[in-house]
Design brief:
Length: 139
């Protein structure tokens, strides 16, 4: 059974949208492993280094329109060919949909045809509300 957490989570006004296979997300949640990504998350790393609490919204890599969970970045390291990152525990998204995400650079919603693995978005009000009373993700 999912239960609300006792403490609200402070999150930034921008977030990272990324795609991942659900089984990789479950493994990372259970053992705290770093997640490799072939895309270089340069902007996310810069924001993280500024001390910002960046939420990460995970979509299913097999069906990008389906959101899985959200978390907060604990570490981001950009290398020559990609990025390695770790997150805090995973939380349930409940009613949040990909259509709630607005791309910072365009000011428009993520298009239905979008399949890229990394986008900086405005943190939706709904996610800010969920962070006030986060519910653990059950995979």
């Amino acid at each position: 059974m999912k239960r609300p957490e006792d403490n609200p989570i402070e999150i930034d006004d921008v977030c990272v949208y990324t795609i991942i296979a659900p089984e990789r997300l479950i493994r990372a949640d259970s053992n705290g492993e770093a997640l490799p990504e072939k895309t270089r998350w340069v902007t996310a790393e810069k924001l993280f280094q500024q001390g910002r609490q960046l939420p990460v919204v995970f979509a299913d890599a097999r069906n990008c329109r389906k959101l899985l969970a959200w978390s907060v970045l604990k570490q981001v390291k950009v290398g020559e060919t990609g990025t390695e990152f770790t997150v805090t525990r995973l939380y349930d998204l409940r009613p949040l949909h990909r259509g709630n995400l607005t791309v910072v650079s365009t000011g428009k919603r993520i298009p239905k045809s979008h399949i890229r693995p990394y986008v900086i978005c405005k943190t939706p009000r709904l996610l800010k509300a969920l962070a006030k009373r986060p519910v653990s993700w059950s995979g």
